[in-house]
Amino acid sequence: MSVLWIVTEVKDNKKLIHDIKKSTLQKQEKQIKYEAANALSFVKEMGKIHNGTYKQEVQQMVLNHLQHIRFGYAGYIFVNTIEGKALIFDGKKVVGEKSIKNMTDAKGLKLFPMERKAALKPGGGYIRYLFKKMNDTLSHPKISFITYYKPWGWIIGAGDYLDEAQQKIQSLQSPIMTKVRLKISSILFVLLIGSILLLFLSDYVAKQIVSQPNYLIRYLKGSSGKSFDTNKIFIKELKIIAKEIIEIQNRKILVENELREHKEHLEELVKKRTEELNEKNKRLEYFHELFVSREFRIKELRDEVKKLKQDMNIKDESADGLS
What is the CATH T-level fold of the domain 2-180, as seen in this structure? Predict the structure, then answer.
């Protein structure tokens, strides 16, 4: 979105600069055309008033007036004859004769044929070329509007320099470009900060994602030392698995508790049965001892009886012998 905004902003400002440049040049073209038309109108009026008599004097008056006209950035009026003789050159009335028939600009462009052709067009025309400024020896881009006053055979032109307009355009577009650069710098700074924050956030999220399974594994291994908190798991699938594992473990604990209770119950039952058996065994032993003792006593009695019988038989036999 930010990149799209930057592209749109640059595109819009390029269009704005283009429109400023176009508007500035159009204004300059209109102004030189206006100045050329005014000069031609002045020449026409003077030509009507002084047509024939005092023609040369009137022409000199006209030239004296036109040579002082200044407009725009460095614009002025120039006048040449249709035969190629300069009357006002470089913003000054020419003293003597000065031919411009073979004059060329810095790029070798022949100026007079181009000027003459524009002058003879209905309503005049624009020409572009390189020409030095007044009191300067360097050539600069220049635009002129050329008209023609046929009764006197004068080519009347008004021209101004494009580099001055370019400087104005530059002065207008410089704040715009500065504003755009500041906006772009601000956006890029925000993007940089956002990228850094996103990097830290991504690292944090990555660590959290990695820690989720580890947390679950530690719990399953019993190394966490704490009860498992499913709220610490934010991965949906892992949270479902964790809940299922906890449910399984809870069921396991329940079964283990039931088994332990059953075992304790069985142990208690066995203990009770063992005690009962021990008690019965003691009673059996007691009765067994009684029985054994009875048998032994009976045997003793039998032995005594037998002995008595024997003793009695001996006595009987002795008695019989005595008899």
Answer: Beta-Lactamase (3.30.450)
Predicted TM-score (pTM) of this structure: 0.54
As beta bridge partners, residue 14 has none
Note the pLDDT of residue 9.
67
User: What is the mean pLDDT of the segment spanning 233-240?
Assistant: 71
User: For residue range 26-77, what is the model confidence (pLDDT) as tens digits?
Assistant: 999 999 999 999 999 999 999 887 766 688 899 999 999 999 999 988 999 9
145-172 confidence digits (pLDDT tens): 999 999 999 999 999 999 876 776 676 6
- Residue in 249, 222, 251, 238 with CA at minimum distance from that of residue 230: 238
Nearest Cα residue to 145 out of 156, 131, 130, 134: 156
Domain boundaries defined on the chain: 2-180, 239-323
Q: Which residues contact 67 (CB under 8 A, 6 or more apart)?
A: 76, 77, 88, 91, 92, 93
Kindly report the number of other CB atoms within 10 A of residue 138's CB atom.
Answer: 9
* Whole-number pLDDT of residue 252: 76
How many other CB atoms are there within 10 angstroms of residue 139's CB atom? Answer: 14
Q: Are strands 139-149 and 154-161 parallel, antiparallel or unpaired?
A: antiparallel
- Is the CB of residue 104 less than 8 Å from the CB of residue 110? yes
Q: Are strands 92-93 and 154-161 parallel, antiparallel or unpaired?
A: unpaired
Structure-block tokens of residue 143: 């635009």
Output the six-digit token pair for 167: 């400087």
User: What is the C-alpha R_g of the chain?
Assistant: 66
- Does residue 40 contact residue 66 with C-beta atoms inside 8 Å? no
